[in-house]
Design goal:
Calcium-transporting ATPase, cytoplasmic transduction domain A; alpha+beta; 7-stranded mixed β-sheet; Rossmann fold; elongated; disordered C terminus; 4 domains; disordered N terminus; single chain
Length: 689
């Protein structure tokens, strides 16, 4: 990359848009081949000199310098033409100066070592990007669609919105869509990191790159291949990789002014030294200082780490929006978790109906369903699922933070939390019992009389307790934030192992609480929520993490970090991964700065020669690149699963069932649902009084 590490440059051989064409093997890189030839000529030149053939040695060294310099000198000259200076500028000046002073061996060594370190830098960056681009290879090469009453095989790029894809067992789904026929389980592990296949049926969404495990699905495409969720993820992460974290900006701030400063220092050393000593000696020392102070290792240390770590996180089904988000995520010490949809499944269901004396349970449910018929609140969905044919209500209005009110059958009716509607002495005991069990309670009042209460519960995710324990084991403070009542929140928090509980919060209250958590724990705070209802808290937190963001434009575009799946166990693994990447950044910056601070004074007083400085400096660059690439390794926490690197693999098709004649899956009848239709409540426990 030459000057690219310290400022924009044009070498003519970099093109991120052609990442798919990047050589797969190190020896296939053109710059490595040039460097290898330069290295052979360099060694041959020293051998010729040792054997007494000085002219042959000089010629070989000149050839080595020319071949090695060809990888960075032309790009440096083009950059200088545009008034841009960088590390390549320092190296080019040192190379030309060494040649003018007759230091042919040192010039050849500089060209060889710098060219090979730059080639390794290019290769490492391209390799870390290649893993992300492999996501696009999850799209099948051919797509089977239903057109004009028959089946037709087309290329993925020919797929149009509205086309109906026929997806057989073992096939990958080419683009996002909605199932219109068939039932199956779909493996989304390559996209969301979910380890358990998802059961899907008509009306449910599926995403590009998922694998149909069994049965036959007819899927109506809702996006083209170029604009589906898979392509969107790749674009977002590639854009995010260009964003700079705080330490990456520090490296830039150090390296950019350092280059001209070093050039001024070299001129002063050569000029002042020539006044009091041998000009040739001090000019040579000035050239050595130019090389010693080159900050290329410092400038490349953080970008390599960021790209490697962000690419690795994408294999977990986690989008990290660049260096700034990665670094802040690595500094998090407190994790605030929203309850609904994060710790819980976000599928609340009616679990119990408690009625007042002489009031039928159906009456309580009917009034509640009438009021909630047009509500979008999750609790409304649970009530409507229990009463699929609600009555009608008029003048329905939402009372923020309390409930809803309106007119049912010409009489006023209300539904809301016990603090807003007094359940009365007859029901207070039952309401308290339900709340202490972690159940949300809605009290129903009709014409000024309390009819009863409905208990609604959203169960914890099965991995919630394990996730909280993993966070605590890794030194994170964990808090739960919710708008639910205190008793319900405390009960669910106790099940999850959380002791720091904050309940009955409005959205703005959550944002204020994030500030207090930051001050109390004296560290960065991450907020984990659904990306919409928790928007103020997500924006206030140092890092906002959106759950279940796959296919959600708002979450993908606004969150600092997005968990594309709903497996909460990826949260502690992602935090630990970011913490390790941040530590690697600090290691690289510290080492790079120490190298420059050590080499410059030693070079200025003549302790180190040009060849030695070049070797140490370029060896340090290779080391920080290798150390940065380590951030691309995923280390699973106990009890978590690390997905394999994303690459297309042959899919083992399940053997046909006896119901499939001649092994033809497309002729088999649709499999019946293994569970009752979602939302239907059966055998509710009714407590009539």
């Amino acid at each position: 990359m030459s000057d690219a590490c310290c400022g924009p440059d044009d070498h003519g051989h970099h093109d991120d848009d052609h990442g798919a064409e990047t050589p797969q093997r190190l020896w296939q890189v053109r710059e490595i081949q040039f460097a290898a030839v330069a290295g052979i000529l360099l060694g041959a030149g020293f051998l010729a000199g040792w054997l007494g053939s000085e002219i042959t040695g000089t010629v070989l060294h000149l050839l080595a310098a020319a071949i090695g310099g060809w990888t960075f000198v032309p790009g440096t000259l083009r950059a200088l033409w545009r008034r841009r200076v960088g590390v390549g500028t320092l190296m080019t000046i040192a190379l030309v100066g060494a040649l003018l002073l007759g230091q042919f061996g040192e010039a050849a060594a500089l060209a060889f070592l710098f060219s090979i370190s730059e080639a390794l830098e290019d290769y490492s960056l391209a390799r870390t990007r290649r893993g992300l681009r492999a996501l696009l290879a999850l799209v099948p090469e051919r797509v089977l669609v239903l057109r004009d009453g028959g089946e037709e095989t087309i290329a993925p790029e020919e797929l149009r919105v509205g086309d109906r894809m026929l997806v057989r067992a073992g096939d990958r789904i080419a683009s996002d869509g909605v199932v219109v026929d068939g039932r199956s389980s779909v493996d989304t592990s390559a996209i969301t990191g979910e380890s358990v296949p998802v059961e899907i049926g008509p009306g449910q969404e599926v995403f590009a790159g998922s694998i149909n495990a069994n049965g036959v699905l007819t899927v109506e495409a809702t996006a083209t291949v170029a604009d589906n969720s898979l392509a969107k993820v790749v674009r977002i992460v590639e854009d995010a990789q260009q964003r700079k974290g705080a330490r990456q900006r520090i490296a830039d701030r150090i390296s950019r002014p350092l280059v001209p400063a070093v050039m001024v220092l070299a001129v002063l050393i050569a000029g002042l030294g020539a006044l009091f000593g041998d000009p040739a000696t001090w000019i040579e020392r000035a050239l050595v200082v130019l090389v010693a102070a080159a900050p290329c290792a410092l400038a490349i240390s953080v970008p390599v780490t960021v790209i490697a770590a962000v690419g690795a996180a994408s294999r977990l089904g986690v989008l990290v929006k660049g260096g700034a988000a990665l670094e802040t995520l690595g500094a998090v010490r407190t994790v605030a978790l929203d309850k609904t949809g994060t710790l819980t499944r976000n599928t609340p269901a009616v679990t119990e109906i408690v009625t007042a004396d002489g009031v039928p349970a159906a009456r309580v449910l009917g009034v509640a369903a009438a009021l909630e018929a047009r509500s979008e609140h999750p609790l409304a969905a649970a009530i409507l699922a229990a009463a699929p044919e609600p009555g009608t209500a008029r003048d329905v209005a939402t009372v923020p933070g309390s409930g809803v009110e309106g007119t049912v059958e010409g009489r006023p009716a209300r539904l809301g939390k016990p603090g807003w509607i007094n359940p009365g002495e007859a029901l207070i005991g039952e309401v308290t019992r339900l709340q202490e069990a972690g159940t949300t309670v809605a009290v129903i009042e009709y014409d000024g009389t309390v009819l009863g209460a409905i208990g609604i519960r959203d169960e914890l995710r099965p991995e919630a307790t394990e996730t909280v324990q993993a966070l605590r084991d890794n030194g994170y403070q964990v808090a739960m934030l919710t708008g639910d009542n205190t008793r319900t929140a405390a009960a669910l928090a106790a099940q999850a192992g959380i002791t720091d509980v904050h309940a009955e919060l409005h959205p703005t209250d959550k944002a204020d609480l994030i500030e207090r958590l930051r001050d109390r724990n004296r560290g960065h705070v991450a907020m984990v929520g659904d990306g919409v209802n928790d928007a103020p808290a997500l924006a206030t937190a140092d890092v906002g993490i959106a759950m279940g963001a796959m296919g959600t434009d708002v979450a993908l575009e606004t969150a600092d970090v997005a968990l594309m799946g709903t497996d909460l166990r990826h949260l502690p693994q992602t935090l630990t991964h970011a913490r390790r990447a941040r530590a690697i950044m600090l290691q690289n910056i510290g080492l790079s700065a120490a190298i420059v601070l050590t080499l410059v004074p030693l070079a200025a007083v003549g302790v180190l020669g040009l060849a030695t400085v070049v070797f140490i400096h370029e060896l340090a660059e290779v080391f920080v690149i290798g150390n940065g690439v380590r951030a691309g390794r995923l280390r699973p926490l106990p009890g978590t699963r690390t997905p394999e690197p994303l690459r297309p693999q042959p899919i083992a098709v399940l053997p046909p069932s006896p119901a499939e004649p001649d092994g033809c899956a497309c002729c088999a009848p649709a499999q019946p649902a293994t569970q009752p239709p979602h939302g239907r409540n059966i055998n509710l426990p009714i407590r009539d009084r």
